[in-house]
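To: structure subgroup
Subject: Chain for Friday's discussion

All,

I'm putting the inputs and outputs inline so they're searchable in the archive.
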Amino acid sequence: MKPDTPAESITLNAPPRALFDAFTAAFPGRAPEIIARAPGRINLLGGHVDIQDGLVINIAIDRGIWLAAARGQPGIVRLYASDLGESVTLRLADLDTRADADGHDLPRWARYPAGVAWALARFGVPIAGMDAAFLGSLAMRAGLSSSAAVEMAFAVAWQELGGWALPCSDLAQAGREAERSYMAIGTGIQDQFTVLCARRGQTLWLDCRSLAHEAIPLPDGVRVVVCDTLTRRELVSSSYNGRSADCQAAVRIIAAEEPGVRMLRDVSAGLLDAFRPRLTDAQFRRSRHVVSEIARVGEGRAALAAGDLAAFGELMNRSYWSARDDYGSSSPALDAMWQAATGHPACYGARYTGGGEAGAVVALVRADAVAHFIAHTRAAYHALTGREGQFFTAHPVEGAAVIA
């Protein structure tokens, strides 16, 4: 978990020596009882639709969060964020206050594990006191789901230490509630579910309403390349919640006359067009993106299953145009990176991943041309913006787990 820096070369193949060093430094004389890992997540198709019960196609990636933990004093959680060099102690009985043991406001990074503990307690499972150190190789606010990786690493760690088991869907919902109710971020469930339930070498198609899901192999001969603009946004202070509110307002207007409508998932393009005179321009355009994006995911599922990379790449491009023009969540840096990436002949398509406004573009690239693609895109992005980018190939991996 790197605040504003490029993802480093730490992968999820084996716990890094630095993890054990961090635990020993934070908790002298103690040794970790468990090691957990949780991957980051890339959204290949289905942007901004999970909060409307939509459909998405994601992968979990081979960079993420490592967590070393041991049972601690009952009711007390001591946390050390190695990447930040910061420690916090909190009382499980005082989670509602969002304050540390000394009464100070919890720093933002600590609210993710605190929020997970708070949400898990609402499921009625015992939350053990814990000493934990964690680190990772995901830049924060880059659209790679660093927050969900932290949440799910702690969720599986508390599950192991507590000796209880919840279904994957419940653990994912605990992470979502940590963000929605504890952090006041209007996110959906796709990040946490992918971080938990993804499979190695596979994409994950997910129905965010029913939580039905399907693993679809990523075709041979293609790679997913992350093209980080090295610009960052903050969901709490950005327009993310405002765009979501526009969509919710449109749903209320439509549902007043169409009782079968609960979310934009239930709205066809034709029905949305019929209500256009009664919606603001922002409400209509945001909603048009969501409705059309859900349809694109259906097409993308079929294209992946058929191994049709050209078709899937074109859907990624259309997704980007829709998010830029209708949802209004791109940025000059993302536009420049998308232009740079899709200007290479080996790129099937690209779109941004995450909440938008900043962060990373994800590109689908012919495997034998990745090195040339990265060199080209790096130079083209610099020529367009004067900025440096960060690039790496992301390999699909399995979801979060306790490994020792």
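Points worth raising on Friday:
The mean pLDDT is 93.
The radius of gyration is 21 Å.

D.
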